[in-house]
Design a protein that fits this description.
The complex is a heterodimer. Chain A is mostly beta strands. Chain A has one domain: Immunoglobulins (Immunoglobulin-like), CATH 2.60.40.10. In chain A, the strands form 2 sheets. A 5-stranded mixed sheet of chain A has the order 1-9-8-3-4, with no helix packed on it. In chain A, a hairpin with a 5-residue loop joins strand 6 and strand 7. By secondary structure, chain B is mainly beta. Chain B is 0% helix and 50% strand. In chain B, the strands form 2 sheets. In chain B, strands 2, 4, 5, 6, 9, 10 and 11 form a 7-stranded mixed sheet that branches. Chain B has a 4-stranded antiparallel sheet with strand order 1-3-8-7, with no helix packed on it. In chain B, a hairpin with a 2-residue loop joins strand 5 and strand 6. The chains are: A mainly beta, B mainly beta. At the A-B interface, strand 3 and strand 4 of A face strand 4, strand 5, strand 9 and strand 10 of B.
């Protein structure tokens, strides 16, 4: 399973765009890139998933370059409530376990 | 919006006691999982369950642990003889299918405290 590397923490201010980059150099052909969010004392929550190029939903965008060795989660106009830990995961197919790293602690301030 | 529920939210037990953590996955989901998170540490996979049997388990999931789907709605995790190091948040999750779109829906967790 491809190992992921992401920054331990990031700080931002309300209204800013936040980009969290994750590297996954050993990603395999069948792997997808998935991001989860976790608030303190809550279960992780799915944000977005992609295979290549760009994916956008109502919450975030995910940018994946052609070589797929990295990905960037983009959160537009963050608010205080976006303060959470963000996990980048590489997943292979459905029904399989999720392997969480330490994630990126995003802190949003006024 | 359908959600995964877990009971109890907090369980305190004495070392050596048996505990059962309960989960109700989303009704049309077929894959079920347990994860745990020791305070301040990573979320760790314990076990996955499909078609009434374990499909994968981690090294953490030793003989002290068992899972069961006793009826059409509940999914339980039993720890036979709890140890201090079992203190953690336990999360149940479920997913709909084995498609590439592997969104797992997590419950709110049960905080297990072993004294």
């Amino acid at each position: 399973l491809a190992k992921t590397t992401q920054p331990i923490s990031m700080d931002s201010y309300e209204g800013q765009e936040v980009n969290i980059t994750c590297s996954h150099n050993n990603i395999a052909t069948n792997d997808y890139i998935t991001w989860y969010q976790q608030f303190p004392s809550q279960g992780p929550r799915f944000i977005i998933q992609g295979y290549k190029t760009k994916v956008t939903n109502e919450v975030a965008s995910l940018f994946i370059p052609a070589d797929r060795k990295s990905s960037t989660l983009s959160l537009p106009r963050v608010s205080l409530s976006d303060t959470a830990v963000y996990y980048c995961l590489v997943v292979t197919g459905g029904g399989n376990k999720l392997t969480f790293g330490t994630g990126t602690q995003l802190k949003v301030e006024l | 919006e359908p959600e995964v529920t877990q009971t109890p939210s907090h369980q305190v037990t004495q070392m050596g006691q048996e505990v059962i953590l309960r989960c109700v996955p989303i009704s049309n989901h077929l894959y079920f999982y347990w994860y745990r998170q020791i305070l301040g540490q990573k979320v760790e996979f314990l076990v996955s369950f499909y078609n009434n049997e374990i499909s994968e388990k981690s090294e953490i999931f030793d003989d002290q642990f068992s899972v069961e789907r006793p009826d059409g709605s509940n999914f339980t995790l039993k720890i036979r003889s709890t140890k201090l190091e079992d203190s953690a948040m336990y999360f149940c999750a479920s997913s709909e299918s084995a498609s590439f779109y592997n969104e797992q829906f997590f419950g709110p967790g049960t905080r297990l405290t072993v004294l």
